[in-house]
Amino acid sequence: MDSVLIVNQDLDWLKQIKTYLEQLAQFEVITASNDQFIQKTLETMPVSVLVLDIDSPEVDALAVLTDITRQHTNLACIVTSARAVPVFPDIKPPEAILRYLEKTSDFGPFAIDIFEALTLKDLGGSFGDMPLRYFLPLFKMVGKSGCLQIDSYEKNPGFLYFDKGNLIDAEYDALDAEEAARQLIAQCAATHMTLTALPENKRKDRIQKEIIHLVGGHWSDESPREKKATTHFQDAVLKKADEIEPLETAADTLSDTQPETTEMATLDRKAGPLNVACQALLNEIDDARGVALIDISNGKILAFAQTARCMAQSHAATVATTMDLFKSDAVKKLISLEQGGEEYKKITQVQMTTKRTYHFMSIVPDKENVLLVLATGKQSNLGFGWMAMREALAIVGPLCS
After folding, report:
1. Greater model confidence, 50 or 316
2. Where are the beta strands (DSSP E) in 114-266?
3. How far apart (Å, rounded) are the C-alpha atoms in residues 282 and 388?
4. CA distance 231 to 95
5. Which of 10, 115, 308, 335 is deepest in the core (most CB within 10 A)?
6. Is pTM beyond 0.70 here?
7. Residue 267: CB partners within 8 Å, gap ≥ 6?
8. Which is it for strands 98-102 and 166-171: parallel, antiparallel or unpaired?
9. Cα end-to-end span (Å), the chain
């Protein structure tokens, strides 16, 4: 069984997340609160994923992660913080061996990220696949000063100089400071790095651009400065949305198994691009059975795609189940009674397992009544299922009116 090491100074939070994750029974959970335990655990146990709280004062997170890039390159890492974290809209799965996540009391995103990280590790992902740019925002997050030397097998080493988390200078291949930084960021992986003290003669600020913008990202509490890059999945949907003939609708399919007058079987027949998005998600996942977009305020199916006609009845049952999970009076009363107000709206993602299937469900961002549902067989991979869902959510939102 895979092991996950979670490092955090908040002992109550550690206890809660350990209890939550152990209920999944998918991996062993180990907790720690200091550097020495981290090193000892990594040396003596086959840890697959490290979840590291960068805000912990007793842990030199940057030193730990720099060491990992040299000594434990196959370890997947999730960096957490109660503050804003870096966001990379164009990150690809092999490069996501290091990922960032805001620390909250909602443990669902942690579980999803851990599943995805385990999947990437099983597929051979390593820090050798991860570009340097995903590592550098760590300096800003911890306010670190120092000289980062990046060794290369083909050229002389490059140097990045940081003062209190800000990139102030760079040296590489006789280029000026900002261009040297750009070339190192573009060409180098996050391996073979050495961190030393900031030299006295390198304290002049020769780079004006912030590190988060040099690396092509933005902070989670900011809006992106540029239009997000599209993935191959998004490109496929955008290309086909205007040219594809309308797919067989849910109402057409459901009519074979139950009366079309059933309110929960209705479908907006003008949802061409949404149908394309559902079909693209269906094609993205091995052993996928069906995809649906559901308006959980009234049970209306907004878009639909499937691999077998027999899935229609199953999807109708799924609609009924999701309505209960997200909007039933019992759920509202229970959660609102415990947390107050409309806290039930905080339920944004659910994974449901049956004897033969997985169902991935997620509220579409900024569309609190629209739910995306992916149904797969059990030969499908949980990590890949959630990664594909996240890609789909990024383009489904703007298509929902």
Report:
1. 50
2. 146-150, 158-163, 166-171, 193-196, 218-219
3. 9
4. 14
5. 115
6. no
7. 249, 250, 251, 300, 301, 302, 303, 304
8. unpaired
9. 44
Average confidence (pLDDT) over 90-100: 70
**Same fold? 3-130, 232-399:** no
Query: Residue 109 — φ and ψ, nearest 5°?
Result: -60, -35
| 8 torsion bin: left (phi>0), alpha (psi -120 to 50), beta (else) | beta
- Rounded distance between C-alpha atoms, residue 330 and residue 213, angstroms: 46
Q: Which two tokens stand for residue 189?
A: 């992986």
Instruction: Please give the Cα distance from 352 to 361 (Å, whole number).
Output: 8
Q: State how beta strands 28-32 and 166-171 pair.
A: unpaired
Q: CA 3, 4, 7, 8 torsion: positive or negative? A: negative
**pLDDT band at residue 309 using 50, 70 and 90 as cut-offs:** very low
Q: Distance between CA atoms of 86 and 219, rounded to whole angstroms?
A: 5
Residue 3: name the closest of 35, 33, 44 by CA.
Answer: 44
Q: Where are the alpha helices (DSSP H) in 76-206?
A: 108-122, 137-142, 177-187
**CA 44-33-14 angle, 5° bins:** 105
Structure confidence at residue 357 (pLDDT):
84
| Mean of pLDDT over the chain | 75
The residues spanned by each domain of the chain are 3-130, 137-219, 232-399
- Segments in 188-310 forming alpha helices (H): 211-214, 232-240, 250-254, 272-284
Residue 115's DSSP bridge partners are none
Q: Give the CATH number of domain 3-130; options: 3.50.50.60, 3.40.47.10, 3.40.50.2300, 3.40.50.1110.
A: 3.40.50.2300
- The partner residues of 32 in beta bridges, in order of sequence, read 7
Cα 284 from Cα 299, distance rounded (Å) = 26
Q: Which residues contact 224 (CB under 8 A, 6 or more apart)?
A: 87, 89, 218
Q: How distant, in Å, are the alpha carbons of 91, 109, 114 from that of 100?
A: 12, 11, 11
Question: In this predicted model, which residue has the larger pLDDT, 90 or 350?
Answer: 350
Range 21-49 burial, b when 16+ CB lie within 10 A, else e: beeeebbbbbbbbebeebeebbeeeebbb
